[in-house]
Design goal:
Distance between the termini: 58 Å
Number of strands: 12
Largest sheet: 6 strands, mixed
Strand order of the largest sheet: 6-9-10-3-11-12
Amino acid sequence: MLKTLGAQIKEFKKDSVLTPVFMIGEVIMETIIPLLMASIIDNGVTAGNMKHIYLIGALMVGTALLSLTFGILGGQFGSRASAGFAKNLRKAMYENIQTFSFSNIDKFSTSGLVTRLTTDVTNIQNAYQMMLRMCMRAPATLICAMFMSFVISPRLASVYLVAVIFLACVLGLIVSQATKHFSQAFPKYDALNESVQENVSAIRVVKAYVREDYEVEKFKNASNNIYKIFCKAEGIVLWNNPVMNFTVYACILAISWMGAHMIVQDTLTTGQLMNMLTYCMNILMSLMMLSMIFVMVTMSMASARRICEVLEEKADLTSPEKPVIQVENGSIKFDHVTFSYKKEAEDPVLKDINLEIKSGETIGIIGGTGSAKSSLVNLVSRLYDVTEGELLVGGVNVKDYDMEVLRNQVAVVLQNNVLFSGTILENLRWGDREATEEECRRACEMACADEFIQKMPEGYNTYIEQGGTNVSGGQKQRLCIARALLKKPRVLILDDSTSAVDTATDAKIRRAFAEAIPGTTKLIIAQRISSVEHADRIIVMNDGQVDGFGTHEELLENNAIYREVYDAQMSGSGDFDEKN
């Protein structure tokens, strides 16, 4: 874990090294100041030597200024190092997430990834800054103060030793108990973020069903869970102050009492007693800082583990060492393909699929909900890998392609159409970042999107709100189809992507495909037989298997499932999910 996190310090190593150096310099200066003060009292005030007072006073001012300078520089470099470390962590996580396949993403919830990128990184940032500054300052202060105390008076210094042992035991107990609660707190942030995310993204549904009170209560419960855990943890940590105060005052009383007797016995000077009292505060406050460091590090350990889970997650799908970088054509062949989302699953999602599709063919895919239609096409662009068998595109196994090349040549319009905030042109250019406005217009004409874009006040420069909330479902689908067409793919997959489009527009889109991209292989998943009956061939999926594969006429004659649903749809009563 330390190796994984440490690799992200990168260009901030210099700042990370200089911070503790300056903090040690500050501690040394602070340790010298009590010695100079004792000298002023013993050799200046008591002896009435004003020259000595001025000289040592000037040295004290210089030492204090040096201490201040070291402290400022330590704070500056520490802030830069911790903020830079946090920046690199976020960047590394985000970049690694972009490499994830669907199977990797399935391991993490969206809210969990958001928490890791925000709350968990902030915890690590705070802990790292404290470690750079306080982890060097506190032990250095403790060691220097203890050393000087034993040099001045071993007898009085033994009081500090007892206090240090006592505090170490008590603070260790406090930290161990608080750790249990802090480790439980941060996973609760996932539930809180999930509540907010669902509510905001589905705000229209919430209002339509008048569920505001329910959502408020749900958020309140998630927030209260975090509140209760932190109250327990902070309640334990709060014992730091009373224990520390008790020890400090006990030490001051003991040293004052013992020191007074030693001054009377002429074995200790007044300046030395003041030194000892100053070092007393330094020692005990350094212990206080150490206890807070332990608490902070403990809090951040859970966050560190969660961040490392993301950083150490390796993409299940990667390009081979010597990948194929050109897709010759859009032919597709499933050769005894079996697929499961989880290797340990007893029943595969797809079972022994054998299909051969010629380049340029239009293939319809129909079947009931859960028949694995989407799973079938997801394998073509290698969003998942086959469990058994072989899948070839353009005569080459998809595993042998460079994944970027393959996915650029296999355009997919998924069931859940997503538009990003930005103009229509910016969204379209996801398909081809170099596309001209004229190319975007032609793609929109094929997708029957140009007609409604032209009616918008700013046309292709119309701003799309986050999630595409200012366009209808059918408009969103047509924009996503146009975006895919701009890739000029060898294979175009439409995963139920015209479900929100009327049948007349659906027919126009199909005709445009046949005329404009005849060489592109088109896989069209649909629930309506009218959307696929004019395809070259149609695949009928049932329970993860191919139940039929042929033309519309062949399936009507030979496939019972297809014929039954066709009759039901033609009579206006039924689809693949209705039993007759």
